[in-house]
Structure formats: structure tokens, C-alpha cells
Specification:
The protein is mainly α. The chain has two domains: 101 residues, no CATH class; 32 residues, no CATH class. The chain is built from five helices and no strands. The structure holds zinc ion (ZN).
Length: 147
Amino acid sequence: MAGFAAVSALPDADAIAFVFRIPYENQFGHRGATHSITFALLCGLAALAFAKARSLRAPVQVAVLAALTSLSHPLLDMLTNGGLGCAIFWPFSTDRLFFPIGPIPVAPIGLGMLSVGGLIVVAVETILFSPFLLYATWPRRAKTATS
Ligand SMILES: [Zn+2]
């Protein structure tokens, strides 16, 4: 769970671009290359290598889930109402895209999250994603080995 949570947030590691003064609109700026299908596939490959090195059960499923988890990040960013869109088709296109609707308020960058606007974003996202949190944490019976 912690690993997949990290993978879901990994695309925003591109915020380091601000430190290196890479412009937001650059293909390696925020919401650029790391917010693409290609990056999600690379995450899946890295997860596959990790799963095989650790001899995890079902390494292909781990890889597919990691790729989809990584891809969920830019898809959700494309549903926000601010900033630049995502370079979802990088490196084939550097166009920044949004979905036609943007119901999710864009989060302030950096310390801006520690503001009233940041708290509103957290509240809205908590409401929007609470069904998924409930589903993920709902108690279930443990599967037992048979045969
Ligand atoms: Zn993002």
C-alpha cells in the first residue's frame, strides 16, 4: 500500500524542476514528462524489475497496477481547474491537456498548501475521494488458503 501510494505521488517529483529553474511549461517542467503515459509505463517496468528482484508473487500484476497507479495521477490532474494541463502524450506531443471538465480545484504549489486555499483543496479532495478510501479500508474477511 505504501509503495503504491508513493507511485501515485511520484509524478509530482517533477516539482524539483522549480529548484533548477526549469520553466513550468518546459517538457521537463511541472506536469510535463512525468505526467505522461510513457512515464507510467516506465514505472510499470521499474515495478516489474523490483517485483522480480524481490521474488514477489504475481510480478506482472504488480507492474500493471504500478503503471495504472502512476497513470491515475496525471488523469486526475487533467480534471483540475488550474495550472497547465498535463503532457500526457509526451514524448510524442508536448501539448498540455485537460479534460473538458475540471471539477477538482488545483492545489497551490509548495507552502501555498498551508493556506485557506490549500485547506479548501484538501477538503474537496477528501469528499471526492472518500468513496474510494472507504472501499479500500472496508473490513473484509481474509482469504484462506484451500486445498
Ligand atoms: Zn501532478
